Amino acid sequence: MAFDMYKTHKLADQLESDAYEHCEWAIKSFYDLELEENEYGYEQNVYEVLNKKQIEEIDAYISEWSAPNKYHEPYSFSCLNRIVDQWYEEHEGDDDRYDI
C-alpha cells in the first residue's frame, strides 16, 4: 500500500479558518474596532463595522502586495479579498455608501 494523505480538505478548511480569524484580528487591531454581539450572541463580522475609507485602504494593500515582485501569504490574501467583497455585497445598492 502506497502512502496517501487523507482529509486534506479538512486541513484546507482549518487553514482558511485560521487565516480568516488572523485577518479579522489584524483589521480589528489596526483600526481599533469594537465588535458587538448580535441578538444570537455572535460577534459582528469585521466587514460590518468597516467604512469605505478603511475598505479602500485594505483593497490598496492587496493591490500593492499583489505585484509580481512581492510575496504575500496566499491564504491571508484570499481572506482579505473575501472581507472586501463581503463589504461591497453588504453595501450594494446603498446610495450613500460612500459616506459610511
Attribute tags:
about 100 residues
Secondary-structure blueprint:
Blueprint: H1 8-31, H2 52-65, H3 74-90
Account of the 3D structure:
This protein has 100 residues and is mainly α. It has a domain at 16-25 and 46-92. 55% of the residues lie in helices and 0% in strands. The protein has three helices and no strands. It has helices spanning 8-31, 52-65, 74-90. It is globular.
Residue-averaged pLDDT:
89
Strand content: under 5%
State the secondary-structure class: mainly alpha
Uncertain parts = none
Q: What does the oligomeric state look like here?
A: single chain
Q: Helical stretch count?
A: 3
Distance between the termini: 59 Å
Secondary-structure element order, as H and E? HHH
The 3D shape can be described as globular
As a whole number of angstroms, the C-alpha radius of gyration is 16 Å
The main pleated sheet reads as: none
Helical residue percent band? 55-70%
Number of DSSP E strands = 0
